[in-house]
Every structure is written in structure tokens, then in C-alpha cells.
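Researcher: Let's do a round of design. I'm pasting the C-alpha cells now; please hold your answer until I've finished.
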């Protein structure tokens, strides 16, 4: 069973930075797609950034481009570096994963099988 454990959320002032980490265990495949989603109260869960751990390919939501960076420290751990944070970035952030490579609709929550518990980011 795949498990995802997030860390790194918290409260920060606008313009500040936070780094979220997600550690995965239990994958059968050596390369997988992992990403970050967020959900603000009363809103749908939206994709922020994803990475394919096989070759480091990344994909970002428009709202994240230029401010957020997703990267991997190894095949099972990814992080989201968030800079220039804005009040509208306030949300619960979730790590998500799917075995193997996601080839289309990468930012759709329905593409992902495994989810972490979430970590709150508050501006």
C-alpha cells in the first residue's frame, strides 16, 4: 500500500516562502508521478504542480508558474518550494501520486490514486 506523508506547511506573511515535502513509501514501480494539489474552503481541489520521478519532467498550473518549483530529492521524495506567496495561496495542500507515468490531464485530481493527509498553508 502506497503511503504519502507531507510536511512543511504553516503560516507565513504575503511575499514569504514555504517548502512542502512529500515522502512516499510502498510504490511497486521505480518511477511514478507525484504532485501537489490544493483546496481552499468552498472551492474545488486544484492541481498545482506535478513531477514524473523517472526523468524529472514537471508541469505547473498557471498560478504556480514562476513562483513555485517542484523537484525530487530522490525517487520517493518530492518537495514544493513556494516563493512570493499570496493570500490566494491559502489552502490545504495535498500530495498525490500515481504509479507510473501520467501522460495527459496531469493536473486533474482524478488521475491520482494515492493521497496524503494534507498540510495547511495560511497567508
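Researcher: That's everything. Go ahead.
Model: Designed sequence:
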Amino acid at each position: 500500500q502506497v503511503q504519502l506523508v507531507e510536511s512543511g506547511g504553516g503560516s507565513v506573511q504575503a511575499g514569504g516562502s514555504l517548502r512542502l515535502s512529500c515522502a512516499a513509501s510502498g510504490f511497486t514501480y521505480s518511477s511514478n508521478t507525484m504532485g501537489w494539489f490544493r483546496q481552499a474552503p468552498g472551492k474545488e481541489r486544484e492541481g498545482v504542480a506535478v513531477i514524473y520521478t523517472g526523468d524529472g519532467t514537471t508541469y505547473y498550473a498557471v498560478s504556480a508558474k514562476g513562483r513555485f518549483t517542484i523537484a525530487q530529492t530522490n525517487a520517493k521524495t518530492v518537495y514544493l518550494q513556494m516563493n512570493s506567496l499570496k493570500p490566494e495561496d491559502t489552502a490545504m495542500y495535498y500530495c498525490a501520486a500515481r504509479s507510473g507515468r501520467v501522460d495527459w490531464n496531469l493536473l486533474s485530481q482524478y488521475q491520482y490514486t494515492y493521497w496524503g493527509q494534507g498540510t495547511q498553508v495560511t497567508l
